[in-house]
Amino acid sequence: MPGRVQGKVAIVTGAGSVGEGIGNGKAAAIVYAREGAKLLLVDYRLDAAEETKAIVDKEGGECSTLQADVGRSEECGKIIQSCVERYGRVDILHNNAGV
Length: 99
What we know:
With 99 residues, the protein is an alpha/beta fold. The chain has helices at residues 24-34, 46-58, 73-87; strands at 9-13, 38-43, 62-67, 92-95.
């Protein structure tokens, strides 16, 4: 069922990978993009989120990145605010970060 989240806006925390390969957050973000979601890719390591963005961009998906630490409550508010400013809403929140 391609397009299951077509037109939805998703936040994926922990969207980068630690080390080589593809971790859960990166994999989830790629699948959401393939299924039509717009993404805010969040990671405490911006370079890791940017690696995921490069994959999504190459496949024609729409996403942006944000550096944030979900272990800090004030930064969680920043994530939501940023997503709403960029995309107008939040439909899916994929809490993948491992803290």
